[in-house]
Design goal:
Length: 228
Amino acid sequence: MENLDFLEKSNFRSLLEADGADRIQDKLVVIDVFLNTEEHITLEEMMRFLGEAGYDFDSGFVKHCLHRMVDLGFAQRKTFEGQPVRYEHRHLGRHHDHLVCTKCGKIAEFANEDIERLQVEVAASYGFHMLQHRMEIYGLCSNCCSERKPLIPLTMAKAGETVLVRDVAGCKHKQGRLASMGLRPGDRIEIINDTGGGRVILGLGSTRLAIGRGMANKIMVSPVKDNP
Ligand SMILES: [Zn+2]
Ligand SMILES: [Zn+2]
Ligand SMILES: [Zn+2]
């Protein structure tokens, strides 16, 4: 990617020079920081990244740079429903579409040849010659989806099942209580063995934990959809 970024940057520089633009060095800094992220970023996030890299440009200038990048074909401006304007790379000859989480705002990219072909076919069947399209799927990402699922006590999960740790019932110092067992909220654990006897054996990453039944009854978990 680095080599490609270098080519993009020198391409941008030569177009700016041909335009007789001013502050070319500053503009190159902005495109550099922009090319270093693979995200769909807002002006505000762009300002933060520049700040972290030690640059203090005013937001009017950065906005102007982003617009020049759009005009010259290096960036694309995206407006997803319910979100501020975002910018992403424009890779020539490559196309992708988006999945947008309406809860946490997460944006994922996908490309599917069948969908692309079908869109051209549908357009053609209405006598349209398709020039461009936007395909955005709105919904809940897998994290937000699992948050919606009902919480169950750890003892109700089955051996072989993967669950997410969510909460500890009836406990004031939940985080500390979990931490004392080597767990944190959001941990993905696998139920290895629940013999119904004294303890539940869990897999967390590459370690196994044994949790007493009384405690396991208080640990609230949510099932993970993509169980193997
Ligand atoms: Zn598409
Ligand atoms: Zn989400
Ligand atoms: Zn994208």
